[in-house]
Amino acid sequence: MRSDGSALNLRRWWRSAGFAWAGVRQVYRSQANFRIEVWAGAVALALALALRVPLPPILLCCALVLSLELLNTAVEAVVDLASPEVHPLAKVAKDAAAAAVLVASIGAALVGLVVLGPALWQLF
User: Fold this and answer.
1) CA 50: distance to chain centroid?
2) How many domains, in total, are found in the chain?
3) Cα–Cα nearest to 62, from 21, 112, 17, 15
4) Are 45 and 65 in contact (CB under 8 A)?
5) Is residue 20 located within the same domain as residue 38?
6) Binding site membership for ATP: which residues?
7) Judgement on whether residues 15 and 49 belong to the same structural domain of the protein
8) What integer pLDDT is reported at residue 8 of this predicted model?
9) Catalytic, out of 34, 38, 69, 90
10) Annotated binding site for substrate
11) Number of separate helices (H) and strands (E) present in the chain
12) Crossing angle of helices 10-30/56-82, nearest 10°?
């Protein structure tokens, strides 16, 4: 598709944002892991607000995990399109994309422990 001018064009930005939100909606509808991660992030953010702990690390971790899950879904779709039959390299691509989500999720859980843990511990 050809560019229709300046990146500062508001109409162009809204159109691009519409495509992006369509992707988020599609992935939310079709991917159980994404739905789980969205709700886990919502719980983490609610806890951070309730416990009055710093929000930026929690927000950043949520954004990272959700972004990587979106990319993982995109990689899987492209690999399935390009290689409908089983192929060792297709497996590598899919496994590596899934591993990126796993690494980010573990990191997010550790950040959650460090940021939310002490405040939760004080409640008990």
Assistant:
1) 23
2) 2
3) 112
4) no
5) no
6) 12, 76, 85-87, 94-95
7) no
8) 77
9) 69
10) 12, 69
11) 4, 0
12) 80
DSSP-assigned letters across all residues of 52-67 = T--SHHHHHHHHHHHH
What angle separates helix 88-123 from helix 56-82, to the nearest 10 degrees?
160
Cα angle, residue 22 at apex, residues 96 and 106 outer, rounded to 5°: 35
37 classed as catalytic: no
Task: Mark the binding-site residues for a divalent metal cation, compressed into ranges.
Answer: 76
Question: Which structural domain range is residue 114 located in?
Answer: 32-123
Distance of CA 32 to the CA centre of its chain: 13
> To which residue do tokens 């972004």 refer?
67
The per-residue pLDDT for range 76-122, each reduced to its tens digit, is 999 999 999 999 999 999 999 999 999 999 999 999 999 999 999 99
List the end-to-end C-alpha distance of the chain, in Å, as a whole number: 57
